[in-house]
Specification:
The chain is α/β, with parallel strands linked by helices. Helix content is about 30%, strand content about 25%. The protein folds into 2 domains: about 15-45, no CATH class; about 50-415, Purple Acid Phosphatase, chain A, domain 2, CATH 3.60.21. Strands 3, 6, 7, 8, 15, 16, 17, 18, 19 and 20 form a 10-stranded mixed beta sheet that branches.
């Protein structure tokens, strides 16, 4: 009788151990912070929720003569830019927030300073068909910075008509305004539980002066004016005060076709970093420049800087040896945990502007290099440039960084984020 009781006790103890081990392996899924999770073993407090989003940024969105002519459809006297982003659309679709530098205006047909190309124009005074803006909306762009050296290419009226068109397409904008009240408004976008603030400024207006009675038209720091740089930094602080968890600063600055950022770019980036910007994207050189990671003295805060993402789409024919056809999609993954918001991963998708008879479009370089049969058929000239871009892009982006911090992964150049 005693033996049976001992056997029974051993059996019950063993069963308890098995159940306890099973419960220890169970991982509760996140639930609301004021709730608890119950199972057969215990009451387990819920882990803190981690919010995340991906911000994807591109460089210059330009429309030159060759793009206008190829997009024109003679039978309907209309324009079709819909094929432009088709090859990179899967990458754009992965973004929670997609942003870029709009380096043209939409003033309307025959309403620019020059109307030499079917009623529109490119360099030196840009004015593009509205169909290009529609293509940007279809591609998924959430926000465009409109402050650059071509902002006033079609007079102040071009600024207003551009913003009106973007509003009608549901594309947010930063850097220009229709009145003083709009200029004072902060650009904030909430996504996935994270509030992101955006700022946009340009160092040049190509010598075109804003009307004295319309100082609100464009955010500028002409000739890298120290006082104006201070204003940029104040806007970053205002965004933080308004509750932004993460701040992105778009700055039009640099020297065209130079492979390295100039001292002014570095100074501006440093100022914006100390003001609180966590992601700094520059444009204007029209070619790729190096990226950098800025770290606070206590190593508790880090920001990523892209000194130039090059031309995302264009058809520039000057400076043939300057790699003006190479651009990039910068992907920054952001996480928010409790009161802390930080970058968790950074990657770059190098791109190339290819030419076809009916359009000029954007191609993912690594995919075109590794799997040429999976992308649009290219001219021999384009194929050669893509192969060069495959190696050139990584060399430029990493600059003086430790080369071991970069690796090719999932058709991207991925920067190890420490």
């Amino acid at each position: 009788m005693m033996t049976k009781q001992i056997d029974k006790s051993i059996f019950l103890f063993s069963l308890f151990v098995v159940i306890l081990m099973a419960c220890s392996r169970h991982q509760p899924t996140p639930i609301e912070s004021n709730e608890i999770m119950e199972d057969t073993c215990s009451v387990i407090p819920k882990k803190d929720t981690v919010y995340s989003l991906k911000i994807s940024a591109v460089g210059d969105l330009m429309v030159h003569d060759y793009q206008i002519l190829r997009a024109h459809r003679n039978d309907t006297d209309s324009f079709d830019f819909s094929p432009v982003f088709k090859q990179v659309q899967p990458y754009l679709d992965e973004a929670d927030i997609l942003v870029g530098n709009l380096e043209t205006v939409f003033a309307g047909k025959d309403k620019g300073r020059s109307n030499k190309v079917l009623g529109y124009s490119s360099f030196p005074y840009f004015n593009s068909p509205n169909a290009f803006a529609e293509a940007l909306a279809q591609a998924g762009f959430d926000l465009l910075t409109t402050a650059n050296n071509h902002t006033l290419d079609a007079y102040p009226e071009g600024v207003v008509s551009t913003l009106n068109l973007l509003d009608s397409l549901g594309i947010r904008h930063v850097g220009t305004a229709r009145d003083s009240a709009e200029k004072q408004q902060l650009c904030l976008i909430e996504k996935n539980g994270i509030l992101v603030g955006f700022s946009g400024y340009t160092y040049s207006l190509n010598g075109i002066h804003r009307p004295k009675d319309k100082p609100y038209l464009v955010n500028e720091f002409i000739n890298y004016d120290t006082t104006k740089i201070g204003e940029m930094c104040n806007e970053i602080r205002r965004l933080k005060t308004a509750g932004a968890d993460f701040v992105v600063a778009y700055v039009h600055a640099g020297t065209e076709y130079q492979k390295k950022p100039n001292s002014y770019q570095r100074r501006v980036a440093d100022s914006l970093f100390h003001a609180g910007a966590q992601m700094i994207v520059m444009s204007h050189p029209h070619i790729l420049q190096k990226m950098d990671v800025l770290t606070s003295k206590d190593s508790l805060r880090k920001s990523v800087v892209a000194y130039s993402l090059g031309n995302f789409i264009s058809s520039q024919v000057a400076n043939e040896k300057s790699y003006k056809d190479i651009g990039a999609i910068l992907e920054v993954e952001v996480k928010k945990w409790k009161d802390s918001t930080f970058i968790s991963a950074v990657s770059v998708i190098p791109t190339y502007s290819y030419w076809r008879k009916d359009h000029i479009g954007v191609l993912p370089v690594i995919k075109a290099h590794d799997s040429p049969n999976e992308v649009i058929k290219l001219r021999k000239k384009d194929t050669m440039k893509v192969n060069k871009a495959y190696y050139h892009t990584l060399e430029v982006l990493r600059g003086d960084m430790d080369s071991t911090l970069w690796k090719i992964e999932n058709e991207r150049y991925r920067l190890e984020w420490r």
